[in-house]
Amino acid sequence: MTLLAGIAPDPTAAQLDRIADALGDVPNVAYEAAHVYPMSAPDFRILPGSRRPTPAPGPIKLYVHVPFCNYACRFCFYAKRIGRSREEMIRYLRALRSELALLPVGTPLQQLYVGGGTPTAMPADLLDELLGAIFGHLSATGDISRSVESSPESLSGEHIEVLRARGVERVSMGVQTMDAAVLDAINRGHDRAQALASTAALIEAGFATNVDLIYGLPGQTEESFCRDLAELAAQGPDSFTLYDLRLNERTPLLGAMPVLDRLSLGRLMRWRSVVLAATHALGYHQTRWHTFVRAQSIETSYGRAPCVDGFGEGHQVGIGMSAVSHVGATVYRNDESLRGYLERMEGDKNPVEGTFELDREDYRTLFVARTIGDGRSLSRAEYEATFSRSIDEDFGGLVEGLHTAGLLVGSGDELLLSETGRRLYDLVTLCFYPERARRWLLERPSAAGPVV
User: Please, which residues have CB within 8 angstroms of residue 150's CB and are 6 or more apart in sequence?
Assistant: First the structure.
């Protein structure tokens, strides 16, 4: 069985021109997936020591950033530290405990996501200490979801035992690729055997297992991507998270990839068609733009908490260096440096380095990002009820242009992406960003090449 049977035809040059015209000056650099606003355009106002208020009473979603990694991937732009000693890790855990103590004892915990970095780059006993501190300080609600990130070379049997003992239900395994040549090009420290064995170990241990893969990597072919996907799917993971390569000025790979090797509009559409055809052939279906699951119920409650928690008072707290919180109508970002974060926490100072005040424009973007940008239809009536204006009043020319280019469809109340638009969900979402956010992104060093 070929995984590419039924793949959508490549767009013609005329179609690409119409699409490019409709997208206009859409940014070609983003710092997260387009629906993860505002972290996709992190134009924070730098205000060191800003006070992050305690969330209003009620359940919170907690993100914990563990920055440690065994090596530095050349595509990675996240805050991380390589090869730290046990003593430094213990010092960081003390700082996390200090920041955790800023929350009232017994605060209800609705969702926990431990990411990084690579949490399992810490020894198993230190990971156990971290999870114990969280659950010792906060009160888990009945429907809490617990997720932890890992990587093939860092996961051990001891880690698995700790995760099970602490009630972690979901582990997300960052494989990215299993092609030896591509692994070498991006400086990944695992091999095919480790990736398959670690995935199998998680599944055998009973975790809801997600596997991350990236497409568009240097030297990667459609055939090698599909081979990786098929071999991993044979292990039986519950879901895949499949991303296109995103590069910005923080990624070492940016300067090393020739412009022709980066994802242009046509190549991006081709890769998205490959992903859709291959996952369908393997029995996975798309729930969100980058998420593909075997069973509908698996992935509905086990995703990473969004940076901004709905349209009211935020209850999203992030602890650790670079971690982001949404409290009230403000997004707070902690100091991005390990030294700065540690010094602040050890000096009983506030860890916050920057703030992002959400205004009406930002909430309009969030409305689109949480609907069209996240794989759902947009209700015109709901939009108008939320903002007291129709979406056509706010985005009429844009919506009409995207319709004409065949990227948006819908009549009556619903507005949704067409089949062509589904292959460019992120670029369409970026069109709805506030002008200041688009301008900020357009001023960044070009990473993905032109969209034409």
Answer: 118, 119, 120, 159, 171, 172, 173, 174, 198, 202
